Amino acid sequence: TLRRRKDNKAMHASDQSTIYAATASGGVWKSADAGENWQPITDQLPSLSIGDIAIDPSDKNTLYCGTGETNGGGGSITYDGAGLFKSSDGGANWTSLGLGSTGSIGRIEVDPRNPKRIFVAAMGRLFANNPERGLYRSDDGGLNWSNKLFINDSTGVIDLAINPAQPDTLFAVSWERVRRLSTRKYGGPGCGIYRSTNGGDNWTKLSGGLPTSGLGRIGITIAPSSPNILYATIAN
User: Which of the residues 74, 86, 133, 150 has an alpha carbon 20 to 30 A from that of 177?
Assistant: First the structure.
């Protein structure tokens, strides 16, 4: 089953025939002929559970793969991952960029003006509370990471949107989620939408017009034709 929230695939603006599809428990697949044929490109990674895949806007051959499925799973099987991986040759080879304790990665964004600045939305472990969750940022191409938005040890960041015209403006979505063998709690006061106007250094929780209670998972996206328009879908 495909598990990317917006379009289940990634492609670069300069190459519409090459498509990457990230799957929940089957790795990343690549098509070089607009979807007619597919080949797996991450079978060598330590995890085939994929949360997101992103292409560097400045280089169509540079890919980032975030492992760990971020969906909580009802009666289905959901696997944590092994961190973030990078390919500089269109998926032929991969190297680890760390974040192995984040459990699952819901979204990756690369600054369109600065390819060394990478943002990663991490949900944390599915069956345990852990502090390695939230919004991570690297300013050196993934060599080092800092947590820029931490809510609590049961609330991670599930989605992220970056303004293409003003990359210092970002929107991050938090999702409170607790699952045990006999308990599933997918929502709570930790859920919300946050905005930063300085590249993730500071965040403000948005409120005007949004529900104030009963929040569950939220998804967001920015309208490509008008970056001032943000859409949110909210589950109770």
Answer: 86
pLDDT digits (tens, 9 = 90+) for 46-87: 999 999 999 999 999 999 999 999 888 766 678 999 999 999
**Alpha carbon distances (Å) from 199 to 33, 110, 122, 140:** 36, 12, 17, 14
Enumerate residues 6+ apart whose C-beta is below 8 A from 213: none
Name the DSSP letter for residue 69. Answer: -
CB atoms within 10 A of CB 228: 10
Dihedral sign for Cα atoms in the order 144, 136, 109, 88 = positive
Q: Write the DSSP symbol of residue 45.
A: S
Rg (Cα) of the chain, in Å, rounded?
Answer: 17
Cα-Cα-Cα-Cα torsion 8, 103, 189, 179, nearest 10 degrees, comes to 100
Q: Which residues contact 225 (CB under 8 A, 6 or more apart)?
A: none
- Report the distance separating Cα 170 and Cα 202, nearest Å: 10
